[in-house]
Amino acid sequence: MILARFLGPRVWILVAVILAAAILVPLANLWLPADHPLHVPSYLVPLFGKYVCYALLALALDLVWGYCGILSLGHGAFFALGGYAMGMYLMRQIGSRGVYGNPELPDFMVFLNWQELPWYWTGFDQFWFAALMVMLVPGLLAFVFGYFAFRSRVTGVYLSIITQAMTYALLLAFFRNDMGFGGNNGLTDFKDILGFSIQADATRASLFAASCIALALSVLLVGWITRSKLGKLMVAVRDAESRTRFIGWRPEHVKLFAFTVSAVMAGIAGALYVPQVGIINPGEFAPVNSIEVVVWAAVGGRGTLVGPVIGALLVNYGKTVFTGVWPEGWLFILGGLFVFVTLILPRGIVGTIDHGWDAIRATRRARNAEKGEASDSEAAGDPRAVANPAE
Amino acid sequence: MTRSIRWLLVGLAVLLFGAASASAQESPAEPGTAAAAQAAGSAATSAAGPAAIVQKFGGKQSYDETEAVIIELAASGDEAVARALRALRDGDLYWRKGDEAVFIGKRQGDDIAIFDPMTGEPAGAVPRGEMEKVRIKNSIRNAVTTALGSLTLRADNPAQRMRAADTLFSEADPEMIASLGEAIAAEEDTAVRARMQEALASATLVSDLPASEKAEAAKILAARGDRESLSMLTRFAGSTDDPVAKKAAETAIVAIQSNIAFWNQMQNVWYGLSLGSVLLLAAIGLAITFGVMGVINMAHGEMVMIGAYTTYVVQEFIRTSAPGLFEFSLLIALPLAFLASGTVGLVMERFLIRFLYGRPLETLLATFGVSLILQQAVRTIFGPSNREVGNPDFMSGAFDLRLMSVNWNRLWIIVFAMVVFLALLAVLNKTPLGLQMRAVTQNRKMAAAMGIRTPWVDAMTFALGSGIAGIAGVALSQIDNVSPNLGQGYIIDSFMVVVFGGVGNLWGTLVGAMSLGIVNKFLEPYAGAVLGKIVVLVLIILFIQKRPRGLFAQKGRFVDA
Q1: Which residue among A30, A164, B112, B183 is least crowded, i.e. fewest CB within 10 A of its CB?
Q2: Has residue B65 been placed in a domain?
Q3: Which domain holds residue B480?
Q4: Subunit contact A152:B530, Cβ cutoff 8 A
Q5: Overall domain count for chain B
Q6: Closest residue, chain A, to B379 (C-alpha)
Q7: Burial category of A269 from C-beta neighbours within 10 Å (exposed 0-12, middle 13-18, buried 19 and up)
Q8: B247 in a domain, yes or no?
Q9: Which of A162, A170, A179, A292 has the highest number of chain B CBs within 10 A, making it the mutation to test binding with B?
Q10: In this predicted complex, what is the ipTM?
Q11: Minimum CA–CA partner of A146 in chain B
């Protein structure tokens, strides 16, 4: 009950649904016969897994944008870096099964006539090392980038633009063959992960379950952070940075913390994404991708825990459907979504529902107050930090 | 068997070199048409006359006949025949037994690699038995030398003499020394004479004249100071034994090297200015919407794209209905592009952005949505592939400025960027609209209290900024691919320029664009194009850390938004 009060029942329902999916979808895929009405076809499992990874990415962005007011247009970079770290591990697992059959070097290096593995590839044949790098590389980049940016008080749109420049610079860098990350083609043709074939249904189902568990844990983590005192500080920085500073807090430290944690989450999302889609290439660094993440969070409702997850699932499901039916139309829809969400639905779906709910409660409370029986339990108000888009 | 395969190979090789010479090869039985085709092939570079005369070397003929042809060629006064004449002198002129077509040949084992006698373009290889050399003797050689001298160096047209001198300079042929000396004595045009002296110097270096004259020649070449002189002098310094001449050559080499280094830097500066002017054009509209109004317009790049597509539409229209106007297509497109992009900007401001003033992050997202919609709309209407936008004549080609090569379109774009910049400056500082714009920027409430219709000024400012992006699109259509993605390539760079230069300051935008352009081009040789760009981005990110409000920060009190 304490837990339920802590995050509110809605978040627990979300976590329960995610965990149920983590169990039920693999079961429905692997154990139900193909002609069973509830059978989940194998091609859908990685697709769902992709959505879950996107949801995790949207949640990561929500932590910095929704709760801390930092609109990062470069979160796709952290996602992609996590993905590349995982991709490097998967590349090393190919071993001598590549086209050129070189036991040490991935195919593209053989193709480029490289003689030995670059130093930064060492260790990536170990899963634990790769897993560490998945978190460390995006985290470190975010820490260094954020340290400089927040320390010199680069805020608002300026920060958004330099985060976009960051991902753009990485995009250009990873396109280069000399970087040693496969250039244009990226890393692909993976064979297996932890010894299991990456194509096998069971592996895919496990990856899906792992993504769901990561998402559920992240929801709880973000919930815990934002309900803590630090979380309150984040909201304070978002709503009135100067005031927070004058009271005596250090907004740059709060921001740096949120930015770094968020980048690590994005990195994990990328690492789970890559084995499920089977490729990672520099296209993931494209600024458009990062901005798309922003729209997921915005549609669902930033500054909530449930919103970004719902937003990411809805928008991506819409994308899958639409690109199938009317491929050219998707960009119209996406562009329209940006305009619609900012103009008509600034709180997003969840935020708007909350807002309406609060309004109803406020009127009820006012009526109660008229009757002179104001109830203490309701007067406490909603502890959740609802987005206040009118900054 | 092998022969037929050889023929096949020859045929294939020849197919690569233009239809005209190909037809000459494929129909060896018809000498007349072949020669005509040959001449037609050469007509692209010279008049048909001299080419036809050169063909007269074909077939068995006496020395006297050969000499007659030489005199005829000299009389033609076209220095394009010099190539054939020199080949004749060196015994490299051949005619084909099949059709008596004349070629310059080079022995390659059992084969002879043949080249067009007028253009020098390779025309394949044929077995030695197929070709017959045009016979020569010493008197013929002398006749050729005289013909060459009189033909090229004594032409009536100074430009032609100049070209002759330039050709002789690269040839560095000691046998021409005498003719050059005579020509120099007779030359009245100082510029041409200087070129002839350079040609004489280059010939002197490889002749057997005394070392003192060679030292003098080295000085002349040092004064010329280009790469060709450098390689001649290097070769000379490596081969000569005379200490004086060697010393002179080495001094000259050092001088030339520093000269070349200087011009390399100048070329880099030029490329940098060119890139900077492109950045300036792309960013200057943004400097208004972002810099003056504080509106983040992510669809700015799409305004540029709309301008470029307007140019395309104008050119298409001209092509179909008024081909004579093509030279003016850009001039016609300029106001139309301004109107097209300005209208889109006005609509955006009225229906979207004005609801979002004071909410920069939302503005960013909404305008990004608009940019996606505009891109997709253009893709749906015009298709996803690049559209062909032609260069009018005055925009194409290049000229050499000393050791620098200058493209006309780049030059015009620099000029155009400057004109746009100055015009915008004038609008902001000299017109009522500009005055009101500045007033609203500085203090919106006060401006409103003074009777300025601030919403109208907002709309006009945004339309102006967008319209300028449109005319930037006209210019960029000349140097970039006109595709739906055109704008995306510029948006980040433009923001970098504005942020770097300082928000709300047009001069800052100018300096920002030019310095970014030049830094970019200076980094490129060391780091490569992509890495150079990355380095610049990182530098800007670091720079913003140091000076968050840009190079030319607006002075005054700022409220932390």
Answers
A1: A30
A2: yes
A3: 263-399+456-546
A4: no
A5: 3
A6: A328
A7: buried
A8: no
A9: A162
A10: 0.81
A11: B545
